[in-house]
Amino acid sequence: MIDEVLSFLDSNGERALADLKKIAGIPSIAAKNEGIEECSEMVLGMLEDINLEAALHATSGSPVVTGLYDAGASRTLMFYNHYDVQPAEPLELWKSPPFEPDERDGRIYGRGVADNKGDLVTRIWAIKAFLETGKKIPVNVKFVVEGEEEIGSVNLQDFTSKNEEFLKADGGIWEFGGSDYDGVQQAWLGLKGIFYVQLEVEKLSRNVHSSMGGILPSAPQKLVDALNSLKGPDNQILIDGFYDGIQPLSEAEWEAIDKIDLHEEDMKEEYGISQFQNGLTGRNLKEAVYGAPSSSICGLTSGYQGEGSMTVLPGNASAKVDFRLVENMNPLDVREKLRKHLDAHGFTDVKIAWSEGYAAAKTPIDHPFVDVVRRANDKVFGDLRVHPTSSGSGPLYLFKDHVPMVSVGVGDVESRSHSPNESIKLENFFKGMDRIALIVDEMGRW
Amino acid sequence: MIDEVLSFLDSNGERALADLKKIAGIPSIAAKNEGIEECSEMVLGMLEDINLEAALHATSGSPVVTGLYDAGASRTLMFYNHYDVQPAEPLELWKSPPFEPDERDGRIYGRGVADNKGDLVTRIWAIKAFLETGKKIPVNVKFVVEGEEEIGSVNLQDFTSKNEEFLKADGGIWEFGGSDYDGVQQAWLGLKGIFYVQLEVEKLSRNVHSSMGGILPSAPQKLVDALNSLKGPDNQILIDGFYDGIQPLSEAEWEAIDKIDLHEEDMKEEYGISQFQNGLTGRNLKEAVYGAPSSSICGLTSGYQGEGSMTVLPGNASAKVDFRLVENMNPLDVREKLRKHLDAHGFTDVKIAWSEGYAAAKTPIDHPFVDVVRRANDKVFGDLRVHPTSSGSGPLYLFKDHVPMVSVGVGDVESRSHSPNESIKLENFFKGMDRIALIVDEMGRW
Fold first, then answer.
1. Is A157 helix (H, G, I), strand (E, B) or coil?
2. B282 touches chain A (CB under 8 A)
């Protein structure tokens, strides 16, 4: 029976790809509040098209789109995806326009094809395949497709808190995934939390000639000094109490992690580095990836940034900083500790203009749903490399009490999510649909 | 005789103002290499129009425009001006377009009207007044009008080294000046030197998802740490040997300085501050203004700078930093010391992408030409407040062995040079022409 479904997908890959091109053509950038309505309506239409009971749920921000297929089955499978994308800047680095998806060399390029519209389309088409071949779907199916993942899912809780019943499922497929440097498919069982903050300093009522720099206070210097105070030379975060309550990785997790090859040399080549931060390698590198929080500057702005020189003392300066959190860390708590740190170190004038974030979450490494995904993956791709957590973040914490999530998807190590020339392999896209169909099938026999 | 000249200027203020509007309408931005040719040709035409022997001198950058009137007189008066302007960014803060000069409330607004096209036009029109009234100009007159002052006069030396004879004069009027908070006119006898540098850090071959921030090196963090290392909390510059060889202000200078009221409260109000850097006040503030070098960040750039959040680990980061120098400091020497500092503090990967600058220079406070200017000023404006040096910079060091320069001009404390809504008072513009005509007259009787 599943063979007919797979055969349908095999014959209809180009139709699915056309859907991806259509949805990836919409610049649905939550950070700029662009294209959100149009894209949410398109997702709604796609879910209705596969006969799901679909709905748009208003939030204070982007609407959440849901779909439900009640098969009267004992098991329920959930999909979590998002229809928003990162901004495409810097635009000049794209080889083809970011919102005109372009096929070349066995890949498709465009903002959002990897993160996360490619995965969304494979999941919709896997269900469509059952429908169009007239095969009974052996599980109940739920879709939750949000529109603010790239800005920290700031309003998803509006939806989840009102729809706890809908969140209940026996297993869920999280948004992303893909093949490793050696081609082996990977699954992630958890996500780090995040605390993202905009720091702002205003010292003068306007920009002033920089000849006044000897006597007027400097906003960019203050910002630089504050950012410097946050981290030691070993990249340890110097905020008092920042690491409080963090649990070390468990033995079961280390057992899984020890089997993972991080492909250090491949990563070095990919990122153009001669060594990792602080010379991290081996188990230390793995601990940083799977078990430790971190902090990075995502943006710096002040004064004149054009060509050549402009002798200006900027009146203000700002920085965007993200903190990645592990379990038992709370973004609001980090915000408080950051504020205390700034105040205690003479940076009362460094304002937290806004912040957002959420906690970390993990699905237990020995959960039976992990094996459902593994069996399905085996039939399409072969081996599955299981990571206890991703170093990435997402709103998994809103789901973790209701459904065990496993993240697999159609990306690969060249996908460049969040960067110019984002892309996926067409092969992964087509096989990704098969894997979802097989997860549905395996879950019916769980 | 001079009365007729002044009367002509009184009747023809609007014609002079029309010339200012015309030249200030050209966005001659050396930093962007825009409008330079057009503006240099216009200056050439204006000098030819007052019967000067005018010439365009090619350099590796913007041409230098000169004008010569040989009266066969014993004294020679020089004018130094520049026809380039600062970039107008941020454009959205201008109340009228920066390159469409706009008269309102007794002022004229536009990029360059204060710095330095207003002064250039007053000087040309003062000479024109002698010409049009048929009065003999009692001194030889020289104009040097360069086109790269706002980018550190990087190629002016191409001109000055080949034209040392032309630089000889008995007195010169430097580019700028204006009235103080209390309306009293000011003159400056010196300029600080400047060393302006672009620092760049590249740690990754591209921008990467910031979830990798726990293991990849961070370009913005490295830049921030390097900038932090340059200055102590008291704003002392921590570069080894930076202060070597600096002479304290002389007794004669302190005598003049002690008479100067810096109008601290007015300045605080103007810049929107509750106190100066490190609480400087009184003689300490004056020492910082007249006798000390300084350093300021003029620009910071890295990663995402738009609205909202983008979770990116930027592959590179850059900063523009200027150092203001006093006499006996050499920009090349500062560059070397900065490089040594960076290398010694673990910042070998912070590159000096480019730099430019020049040394400080001062005209002796007791030079007789200072009194020529004072007498002329007295007849138009009244008192003249003489500063031993400006905290600003300029290529005075190229002239100082050939001509004693005094800087007076048509600005005021609301002129906002280098900022949006740059402007001058119309009254200062009109009276400024008279003052120049009277300097010519006084110099003829020196």
1. helix
2. no
Nearest to B244 by CA among B350, B337, B358, B128: B337
- Domains B2-191+361-444 and B193-246+292-358 belong to one CATH topology: no
Residue A302's Cα: distance from chain center in Å? 28
Residues of A in contact with B302 (CB under 8 A): 297, 299-300
CA distance B152 to B358: 7
List the 44-73 stretch of B: residues with Cβ below 8 A of A.
Answer: none
pLDDT value of residue A252:
87
Give the model's pLDDT for residue B305: 94
| Mean pLDDT, range B186-213, rounded to an integer | 95
**Looking at the predicted complex, does its ipTM rise above 0.90?**
no
CA B413 to chain centre: 15
Would you give the distance in Å from CA B51 to the centre of its chain? 28
Query: What is the pLDDT at residue A92?
Result: 93
The CATH homologous superfamily to which domain A2-191+362-444 belongs is Zn peptidases (3.40.630.10)
Contact yes or no for A271 and B205 at CB 8 A: yes
* CB-based contacts of B134, cutoff 8 Å, min separation 6: none
Q: How many CB pairs under 8 A join A and B?
A: 308
Dist CA B284 CA B264 (whole Å): 12
CB atoms within 10 A of CB B134: 8
Indicate the residue of A87, A209, A289 with minimum beta-carbon distance to B215. Answer: A289
Per-residue model confidence (pLDDT) at position A308? 87
The Cβ-side half-sphere exposure at A65, using a 13 Å CA radius, reads 25
Task: Single out the residue of A233, A245, A201 nearest to residue A337, CA to CA.
Answer: A245
B113-166 pLDDT tens trace: 999 999 999 999 999 999 999 999 999 999 999 999 998 888 999 999 999 999
Q: Enumerate the β-bridge partners of residue A188.
A: A387, A407
pTM score, whole prediction: 0.82
Question: Right CATH number for A193-246+292-358 from 3.40.50.720, 3.90.280.10, 3.20.20.140, 3.30.70.360?
Answer: 3.30.70.360
CA gyration radius for chain A? Answer: 23
Residue of B nearest to A214 (CA): B294
State residue A1's pLDDT score.
Answer: 78
CATH of domain B2-191+361-444: 3.40.630.10
Chain-chain contact of B273 with A346 (C-beta, under 8 angstroms): no
SS3 readout for A4-39? HHHHHHHHCHHHHHHHHHHHHCCCCEHHHCECHHHH
Q: Read off the pLDDT band of A302 (50, 70, 90).
A: very high
Asked if the model's pLDDT at residue A310 lies above 80, the reply is yes
Would you state the structure tokens that stand for residue B155, as one six-digit string? 């190629």
Domain layout of chain B by residue ranges: 2-191+361-444, 193-246+292-358
How far is the C-alpha of A310 from the C-alpha of A239, rounded, in Å?
A: 35
Task: Flag the least confident range among A389-403, B48-62, B93-107.
Answer: A389-403
Helix, strand, coil distribution of chain B in percent, nearest 5: 40, 25, 40
Query: pLDDT at position B290, please?
Result: 95
Q: What is the pLDDT of residues A7-29, one digit of tens each?
A: 999 999 999 999 999 999 999 99
